[in-house]
Structures are given as structure tokens and as C-alpha cells.
Amino acid sequence: MKRLISLTITILISNLILSAQIVLEHTYPVPPDQTFPGICRLEKGGEKWFIPDVDNHRIDLYNLDYTLYKTINIPTQPNQYYGVMFISDKLFDLDDALEFMVVDFYQTRVMVYKEDGSILFAEGDSANPAKVAYGEPIINTTGGTKMVIGV
Fold first, then answer.
1. What is the tens place of the pLDDT at every residue in 61-86?
2. Bridge partners for 123 per DSSP
3. What's the whole-model pTM score?
4. Beta bridge mates, 102
5. If we measure between CA atoms, which residue out of 111, 95, 107, 110 comes closest to residue 44?
6. Strand pairing of 149-150 and 68-73?
7. Ranges of each domain in the chain
8. C-alpha distance from residue 54 to each of 73, 75, 80, 100, 149 (Å)
9. What b/e string do you get for 9-38 counting C-beta neighbours within 10 Å, with b at 16 or more?
């Protein structure tokens, strides 16, 4: 009887494992040496795929059905080694426009831009570098939302 129960459990677990396989749904053209695609959650627009293209200074956002939602131009940066983080419509301000953070990979500048290219926040330069905290640089706390950077 123990053998039958053990065999039944083994078969059930095997079926669960086999049905949870990863399936490639779609591919995006990502230029060589570029940041990988990611997913952001917008309060107004829902979840979107995003692909930063630093060579062409833009971020392409796609709906989950892979249709283009919007393209945002990234203001020209002092060097070509930067990453895009925290694409949002309510994280950095309360209007419906999108905003995003740009972090210089040399860890000298942290910038937050609105989708129209205007600057919401800027910190750091080569003389006084800014560093984004590892882990969760932006976190909601009981005292409000906090962004942790070192200068």
C-alpha cells in the first residue's frame, strides 16, 4: 500500500513539473551590447515590455500582446554607457506622463526624466559621483517612498 501511495505521489509531482515548462513566446530585436528587455507596471497603461536602445537614445514600450505602445526619446547622455530603470507613470510625480531613471554605468550620475525630456531629478557628476543603492534603490516605506543614492 505504501508503494502504491508513493508511486501515485511521484506520478502527480512529475505531471506538475512537466506542465510547468518555459515556452518562448516572442523575441525582440535588441542591438548588440544593449540592455536587456524588461517589464514595467504603469498605473494607467498596465504592464508593458520595455527595450532601452542606447545607440538610438530611445525606449520602446510594448503591450503584452507585443504591439508597440509608445517610444520615448532619451536625452543625450555624456557617455554611451548607461542604463534605464524605473519606467513609471506615478513613481516620481503625480501626472499621467511617463518618467524614467537613467543611471550612468560609471556611477557618476543619476537622472530622472519625464517622457518629454525635462529633468525631474539630477544628482552627481565626475567630481561628486552619485551611486544608486544595490537591491532596492526605490522602496515604499511607512514613511513614504524613498530613493537611496550615495553622493
1. 999 998 999 999 999 888 778 888 89
2. 110
3. 0.75
4. 84, 111
5. 95
6. unpaired
7. 29-150
8. 10, 10, 7, 14, 23
9. eeeeeeeeeeeeeeeeeeeeeeeeeebeee
